[in-house]
Design a protein that fits this description.
Blueprint (H helix, E strand, L loop, with lengths): L2 H8 L26 H18 L2 H14 L4 E7 L5 H12 L3 E8 L2 H14 L4 E4 L11 E7 L7 H14 E10 L3 H14 L3 H12 L4 H10 L6 E5 L3 E7 L3
Parallel strand pairs: 1-2, 1-4, 2-3, 4-5
Antiparallel strand pairs: 5-7, 6-7
């Protein structure tokens, strides 16, 4: 570990047994715009590896596939908010294509480092894509989107911003919203603490993983925020490994 990395990670203390009764939201290292680019890229690779091993992309694919099958759709647009390095969107596009469904994908993120990684990933896979740098809380979301998704994004936000974002997603999505995130629980914290150490070599991931769980929501909390956003008829289900999936479909 370099001196720079050691100093960075040492500045954030990770508890082995934190109080998880209430949400404890702290700024994650990857959210720092001054984070060293090499460390950021390594962390993005580590997160992508964690996603592959935990197979959480499938949690978002299942409701998308169900909607397309029920409505006999073979081409549909998908917008990913907080897309990071684009691994989710590109996996979804590849998976959908194998099922005879063409996804027109757009990803939004605030980080230019993450967006460049996403563009490079799409180029390697020779996939058409559109990645935009924007603040999804303050700027107008891209129009004409059939489905809006997000993954591991809501726990970064204040409660009021979660309500605001859900409202904006519902206003913009023509058909469906699907989002998945961590659940705040003792089991989830221990899984994350051990899993990030085993799966990733990124010291940023080792710190940010447990911080993410401590700042995440419980099922009751996310249900309450959905109701505040006017989306009371959404579905929120618990999934392995200590995740929730939120789905909302526009009424016909």
């Amino acid at each position: 570990m370099s001196e720079k990395t050691a100093l960075l990670t040492a500045s954030t203390k990770i508890s082995l047994w934190p109080n998880l009764k209430t949400r404890n939201r702290q700024q994650e290292l990857m959210d720092d715009p001054q984070l060293d680019e090499a460390l950021h890229q390594r962390a993005l690779e580590g997160l992508s590896r964690v996603n592959r091993v935990s197979r959480t992309h499938r949690l978002l694919w299942q409701p998308i596939e169900k909607y397309c099958r029920q409505n006999r759709i073979t081409s549909i647009s998908v917008l990913d908010l907080g897309c990071g390095s684009g691994d989710l969107l590109i996996w979804l596009k590849t998976k959908a294509r194998s099922k005879g469904i063409e996804l027109k994908i757009t990803g939004c993120d605030l980080s230019p480092v993450a967006l460049e990684a996403a563009r490079q990933r799409a180029d390697r896979e020779r996939l058409d894509s559109n990645f935009l740098q924007m603040d999804v809380l303050s700027e107008a979301l891209p129009a004409n989107q059939d489905i809006i998704v997000s993954s591991l994004f809501l726990h970064h936000l204040q409660e009021s911003d979660v309500v605001k974002l859900l409202q904006r997603m519902a206003e913009t999505a023509r058909h469906l919203i699907v989002t998945q995130d961590l659940l705040r629980s003792r089991w989830g914290y221990l899984l994350c603490l051990a899993g990030t150490q085993l799966i990733s070599r990124s010291p940023i991931v080792h710190v940010d993983g447990p911080l993410s769980v401590a700042g995440a929501f419980t099922l009751a909390e996310i249900q309450q925020l959905a109701e505040q956003a006017g989306l009371a008829h959404c579905q929120i289900n618990r999934h392995w490994p200590e995740r929730f999936v939120f789905t909302w479909q526009r009424s016909p």
